[in-house]
Design brief:
This protein has about 400 residues and is α+β, with helices and mostly antiparallel strands. Among the domains are: about 120 residues, no CATH class; about 160 residues, Phosphatidylinositol 3-kinase Catalytic Subunit, Chain A, Domain 5, CATH 1.10.1070. The chain is built from 11 helices and 13 strands. The strands form 4 sheets. Strands 3-2-1-6 form a 4-stranded antiparallel sheet, covered by helices on one side. Helix 5 packs across helix 8, helix 8 crosses helix 11 and helix 10 runs antiparallel to helix 11. The longest helix is centred in the C-terminal third of the chain and has 19 residues.
């Protein structure tokens, strides 16, 4: 199968794959658009256009096979949606040889999810654990009128999530798990509120936690946020930035990369310390890049803080609390940050800490567990007090 790999309307290179989308060949780079090739395909300062390089980058955009509740999902759904995403502007334009009905000159403006509607029902099936039901209904690649193509098939991460189209807005819903009292959505909102107290607007994704109870009394909780990427930008994770320059994943290298925005990285690590976020990996922070010029614009706003405050266990004795991404120990990691330089922001967090905590958690399912919220408040406050003494 033959495709042209695209960035918006710009042709980048050609790829040849098997029917199962095993990439056999990458060729015919359009030199005039080389600056628009994904940063994730650059290694040590040079473009790597090997099939392995493309496959590795592409796999990171697909819905993972170990996503909670959809372990048996058809891995080809991303390709059937032409790889279209709401995190960047890349897509695969199928060659006419796949199907005579396919328009070889199919236009990005007609298929992208930023400007065109998509089925919310696909996402609803995915979060209900029935995502594989759509495998046989997604139209062939290139069918603009397909009602089953969805950005959810090109959304990474193991937590249940889906995109929702509401008029012109594109919102991401991330679902909690009933097994741990739907903990993650509330921690997501709590961390985002703390960050907003210390950072300028635009450098922390604002989350809101939502609880729904259906007519049968079944509870569903999720966090919701607006998309921070638009139709002319893309998100580039930190690991891609480091690998492109041949740099090691250290705090010093990352801080240098942030340049004048180093305070954004530091405040992310500070709030991760307060809430004991155990999932700050090199894929969930990074930068926003222009999809039309290839230039890095600014740091991406901080997001994905829900795996925190013992979200998946009931007691501190049962918890394996470890830091990421630069050290496994929280105290060691925070020691690299000049915490004193952020005393003003920390003071704003301290002054509003309890008010924010109870505003977020008081109506959460965990509020029904005797002593649970009081324990979490004491735990996070003790982390904050350590920082204030630095």
């Amino acid at each position: 199968m033959n495709y042209t790999f695209m960035n918006r309307e710009a042709e980048l290179f050609d790829i040849v794959t098997s029917d199962a989308f095993f990439v056999k060949d990458v060729s015919n780079l359009r030199a005039e658009n080389a600056r628009l090739v994904p940063i994730g395909m650059r290694k040590n300062g040079r473009l790597d256009l090997s099939p392995n390089s493309f496959s590795k980058w592409w796999a990171e955009r697909r819905i993972p096979l170990n996503r909670e509740g959809i372990e048996n999902i058809d891995a080809s759904l991303a390709e059937k949606s032409m790889g279209l995403s709401l995190s960047d502007q890349y897509w695969i334009r199928p060659d006419k040889s796949i199907d005579k009905s396919i328009d070889k000159n199919i236009d990005w403006k007609a298929v992208n999810f930023f400007h065109n509607s998509f089925s919310n029902s696909v996402g609803e099936l995915l979060v209900s654990g029935q995502g594989n039901a759509f495998a046989s209904h997604v139209s062939d690649p290139g069918s603009v009128r397909s009602s089953s193509i969805s950005p959810d098939f090109a959304t990474s991460g193991t937590q249940r999530k889906r995109w929702k189209a509401q008029n012109r807005e594109r919102r991401l819903l991330k679902y909690g798990n009933a097994k741990n009292s739907f903990a993650q959505p509330y921690r997501e909102e709590f961390a985002s509120r703390l960050l907003s107290l210390a950072l300028y607007p635009g450098f922390a994704v604002p989350y809101k936690s939502v609880k729904r109870v259906n007519s049968d009394g079944e509870v569903t909780c999720y966090s919701v946020c607006d998309n921070f990427i638009n139709s002319t930008s893309e998100f580039v994770p930190m690991h891609s930035m480091l690998e492109a320059k041949g740099l090691q994943p250290t705090y010093a290298q990352a801080k240098e990369m942030y340049g004048n925005y180093g305070y954004v990285l530091d405040m992310m690590l500070i709030v991760d310390y307060i809430v004991l976020n155990i999932d700050r990996h090199l894929g969930n922070f990074g930068f926003i890049r222009s999809a039309t010029t290839g230039r890095i614009l600014k740091p991406a706003p901080i997001f994905d803080s829900g795996s925190s405050l013992l979200f998946d266990c009931g007691r501190i004795e049962d918890a394996f609390v470890y830091a990421r991404p630069f050290h496994l120990d929280f105290d060691t990691q925070i020691s690299e940050v000049n915490v004193r330089a952020y005393r003003e922001g920390l003071t704003r967090i301290k002054d509003s800490f309890r008010e924010v905590f109870w505003r977020v958690f008081r109506l959460s399912p965990e509020a029904k567990i005797k002593g649970r919220l009081e324990f979490l408040l004491a735990l996070s406050e003790s982390q904050l007090k350590k920082l204030m003494r630095s």
